[in-house]
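Notebook, bench 3.
Goal today: get a predicted structure for Alpha/beta hydrolase from Actinophytocola gossypii so we can plan the truncation constructs. The sequence was checked against the plasmid map this morning, with no discrepancies at the termini. Length recorded as 193 residues. Pasting the sequence as submitted so the record is complete.
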Amino acid sequence: MSAGYRLLGQDAASIDDCLTDVRRSLHRFTRLAASRGLDASRLAAGGSSAGAHLALVAALTTQAPGVTSLVALNPAGLDLCSLEPAQQRDLEHRIGIAPDRLAEFSLIEQVRPGNPRTLIHHRTHDEIEPIDAVRRFRDAMTRAGNDCTLLEYEHAKHGFHYDSDHARDVLATTTRFLLDESTSPASGNFELL
C-alpha cells in the first residue's frame, strides 16, 4: 500500500504534520491487514528519500505497531546532528521545528536494540545524503544488535531506483529481503500488503 502525506510548503506547516500523516497511515494499514485476515504483526514500511526518512522516523520513534521490517531507498536525514551548526539552524527553520528538536528527526539518534530489520539502497555519490552518513547509521544499527543491510550503488543518481537500469535489481533485492523474513522458521508469516 502507498501512503500519502502532506508536504512541507504545501499543506504541512512543519515536519510534525508529515510525520503525523505517516503514523496515521501505519495504524490504518495495521487495521486494514487485520480486517483482511492478514498477520498485522508482520508488516514492512519504507519509502524513498524524504519518504524513507519519515517511514524510518515513524517506525524507530514510536515502535509502530506491526512494523518488523524497513526498506529505505536513498534515505535522507540519517545523521542530522553531525551537520554544522549553521546548517542545523537552517534545517530547523526549513522543517518548522524549534532549535532543540533536531535530534528527534536524526535517525542515528533513534537507534536502539530491537529496531526493525532494515534494508537500505543508496548511491555512493548521493547529492542529498552522503554515503558516509548512511554507513554510520548502518554501523550504529549493527552495534545495537539490529539487522541492517546497506546496498551501495555506484554511478547512480538520487532516486536511482526509478531508473530502469536499477529498478529491477532494487525490486528483486527488496523482495528477497522481505520474503527471507517470511521463510525464517522463527519469524512466523510475513504479510505483503
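The CA atoms of residues 161 and 169 lie 9 Å apart. The two ends are 6 Å apart (CA to CA).
Flagging this for group meeting.
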